[in-house]
Amino acid sequence: MVGIYEILRQDFEAARGAFVEADFHDMNICANRLMSNVLFGFENDTKYILPGFFLRIIANELLALRENAVAKVIRPHAERFVAEIDRAFKEEVDLTIIWNGFFEFIERKREFLVTPVERKVYKANRAFTAQGLAFLSRRFFNDPFLSSRDGIMLKALITEADRLIRHHGAENNELVLFALMRALDWLDRYVAVAFSDADKTGSLESLKEDLIPLLEEVRVWYASSEKLPYSRGTQILCNILLQWRKYFLRYMERAKTVADEERRVELPGQVKERIGKTIANALQKDLGEKGAKGKRR
Questions:
Q1: Distances (CA, A) of 3 to 22, 34, 91
Q2: Residue 107 and residue 111: Cα distance in Å, rounded?
């Protein structure tokens, strides 16, 4: 019988092949497949789920940009991150390599998701990002509205975190927290599905029992200021992802009525508009420089 590691490596190669072909939807599916196969065959070594998580993050980022010109700029950085995931994805997963690859990818991507004006105005202020995320985690991670029928608080928190990171930069701990928040959001999306699942009494209560303790673990972890290789933070992330895949098995496609991220991911806030302005300004500048060179001749 083929070992689970070999199965997961096949999933990884399928996801990487989809990336090479620019089929980011299929890449997302293969990443999900990898995470589910960890649930099926190697739940005792949960770190194997980490490559699937980051492959899904990359796929979703590129799906959000679609055919946008910025996607072409970001893709080489995504390719380097995929290579780092490959390097780290051995039978003994190298957490330091994989987290450093993520940090580098976020930093390189950040440079292209602000307007030229914002690039000039905003200076790196990672301490302010830390202050903002500390406030959000203290104030809202135990808010009952997180698990209410119409609650979209985690999505709002992620939007604020993304804005802080994009404009001010972030230290590694804040980037790990951001990754944990994204995984929690995937799990939280099943709350609305559980509310509508009236024929299965106890479903919502079961989900709350899984979600709320994980939120508390994340809050406590962030207050601890753990450093690389983030062993505890990684374990919490893997536990969140395993719970998410379990709820996927319960509710499957119905979660897409809440958010259809597996097919298409929207950029947060006004990033789309800003990207358009950035490209337009760059083109205008390029045309201006070419015109000036023509006149000098």
A1: 29, 14, 11
A2: 7
Q: How far apart are CA 31 and CA 244, in angstroms?
A: 14
CA pair distance 229, 98, nearest whole angstrom: 9
Contact 61, 74 (CB under 8 A): yes
pLDDT by residue, tens only, the chain of 297 residues: 458 899 999 999 999 999 999 999 999 999 999 999 999 876 667 899 999 999 999 999 999 887 677 788 999 999 999 999 999 999 999 999 999 999 999 999 988 888 889 989 999 999 999 999 999 888 877 766 666 655 567 888 999 999 999 999 999 999 999 999 999 999 888 877 777 765 555 567 777 788 889 989 999 999 998 999 999 999 999 999 999 999 898 887 655 543 444 333 445 455 555 555 555 555 455 545 545 545 444
CA atoms within 13 A on the CB side of 183: 31
Query: What residue spans define the domains of the chain?
Result: 1-113, 123-261
Residues with Cβ within 8 Å of 264's Cβ and at least 6 positions away in sequence, in order, are: 63
Please state, in angstroms and as integers, the Cα–Cα distance from residue 52 to each residue in 25, 33, 47, 237, 239, following that order.
14, 8, 10, 12, 14
- Cα(76)–Cα(57) distance, integer angstroms: 15
The gap between the terminal CA atoms of the chain, to the nearest Å, is 72
Q: Which residue has the tokens 């760059």?
A: 282
Tokens of 278: 């950035």
